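so my prof wants the structure for this chain in the tokens format not the other one, which i didnt know existed until like an hour ago. anyway here's the sequence
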Amino acid sequence: MIKQVSYQEAMQGFKHIYRMEKLPYTPIKNATWFADGDISCAALVRASSSKARIKGTVVAPEMRGQGYGEQMLLHLIGQAKQDSYKKIEVFTRQKGWYINNGFSVDRSTKWGAAVLSRLL
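here's what i got, hopefully its the right format
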């Protein structure tokens, strides 16, 4: 069951995965963290008054491919809608997965990440 957690709780359970995946795990301003036990973790960040951003999405390696990432994504989208955001975006190197989940490519960054978004 996905629930809101503190940054400290998120890092206690998932910091090792962030390190393993070489993903940033420093505190993020305006972030609300969510976790599904020790299975998945992600943050929803206020990017502007009308836009939320998905950050730090991870799934435990042994649980990948079982739909937990999609469950977290759907939870984040639902939370963004509940919070009255009009758009949600993500910076990722896994753009195919997000495209398959209704996102469109907006642009690419200088460091090779794709920026994708979805209207809510």
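also thought this was worth mentioning. The CA atoms of residues 41 and 58 lie 5 Å apart.
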